[in-house]
Amino acid sequence: MKKVLVATEKPFAKAAVDQIEKIVKEAGYEFALLEKYTDKAQLLDAVKDAHAMIVRSDKVTREVIEAAPELKIVVRAGAGYDNLDLEACTEKGIVAMNTPGQNSNAVAELVLGMMVFMARNSYNGSAGVELRGKMLGIHAYGNVGHYVAEIAKGFGMEIYAFDPFVADEVITAAGITPVKSVEELYKTCQYISLHIPANDKTKKSINYDLLNLMPKGAVLVNTARKEVINEEEILKVMADRPDFKYISDIAPDCKAEFETKFEGRFLFTPKKMGAQTAEANINAGVAGANQIHGFFANGDETFRVNK
Ligand code: 3PG
What we know:
The chain is of the alpha/beta class. The protein has helices spanning 14-26, 40-46, 62-66, 86-91, 104-119, 143-154, 168-173, 182-188, 208-211, 231-240, 255-261, 278-298, and strands at residues 3-8, 30-35, 52-55, 73-76, 95-98, 135-139, 158-162, 177-178, 191-194, 219-222, 245-248, 266-268.
């Protein structure tokens, strides 16, 4: 019998786990669960007889792949798959997939939630500012960017987007103004919401020169990956510009420096929280389980991300 392992250091909501288990068992597979593990050894042990696995931001490294001789498919329940060693998967003939779009609304709600929290000075009793009429730049108009724009319209924000992979007509049809360059986006918008993936091209790409283009009262919102930020350079922007604020879903490596120098001008979640809702967990987890069944039953490789 094939074994499907759900390995999530940051657990899914119980309702999601229950639904995944039901799908897996009804399809005739064995179900195994490893949650809140604290040591890599636990993951290495859990994968040793797994034929399929569902993970979140869990690191599926070459070591993990090599500890899983039966593994045929790994599904990242979520969008970003920078945590999967795709090369190792391909070498071992393992199919790697993600579940695009399934947790996007949850991330988008967090973006606007954190923006309001920051605009109102963390609800500390002092007078804040409003979002209405402010310019919001969506840096990469994918699934999350789409939802962010939809919600931001309700706040009365003016929305711009930069995405070289999306046609201007698609962006315009959504009531958003497309811009021609990333520089133009940052120059125009007081708020920037980042939705680029983390890869060799984008890592550390959000740097001093780009951030310094932003108008007065700038707020950078990062629910993408901390790795896309050039941390040394954002510290310099924070130091040079007392008007600049940084919101990030998961703290940067240089968090201690923010704490000592920039009190009140940053907001960091303790763990990546964007996709941490019952709905997103159910959507992504169930999609993952169905994709595994589709792959084993029919060879369906939709959403495959490795070659
Ligand atoms: C994603 O890429 O889908 C999000 O960053 C969610 O990550 P998580 O599953 O670790 O919450």
